[in-house]
Task: structure prediction
Amino acid sequence: MDPTVHNNGKKQLPPTTPKWISSPGNPLKGDLHRAVFTPPHLSYSFNALEPIADYDTLKNHFYNFHMKGFEEFLDLINDTEVEKIGLGLLFKHSDRYPEDVIEHAGCVFNHQLYWDNLSPHGGSMSEEFESVVNQNFGSVFQLKMNLFNLAQSHDCCGWLWLIVTHDGKLQLTGTKHNLNPLMKGASHPGTPLLAIDMWEHAYYVKFQNNREDYLRSIWMLINWNEVSRRYNFAT
Result:
């Protein structure tokens, strides 16, 4: 089944990447401004990431977690001010809104960034971004090792992030549930460049409890061109 068709066979999703993601303007600001109103989107088919990521997991993940979370989020914010302010202000003032609204908003934003960071053939870092990685972590290999080590100590229900902090440094961090580093009160605030879903639904069918193998697989699919692009716009 093509990911541009909803699982009821009728509801159509955008067949190509929406302008607010692909526009030459700041994609981070675009995501935060429009993600409230834009349905979840994949720029590749459900089988495009095989054999590294399997069709069934991707389809289930997209419809039963991301799409369902999006629809529940719309129900929660119906006829409220959140419909007008967008995700950016919602995250900035997350302490002012109900927990279930914030969790669902995080589900929407986090998953879209997760999908956008993956590509059937991965992608190379720009020379500029690789230099920044080397300055912050010592090497790309050390970034990978630090990510794996963080995953071992992180709660299984949550997310791993590569962020750029407010002073321009790269940092790895984790959040519980569907929280993210953009939200007020985040232990390590910053602009997300890379999101990795560590909820069991993201990997259990193929990898069971072996999160390290899941991370190895995801690492092979990371579109570093997209991560590099986000870094350039964030700094």
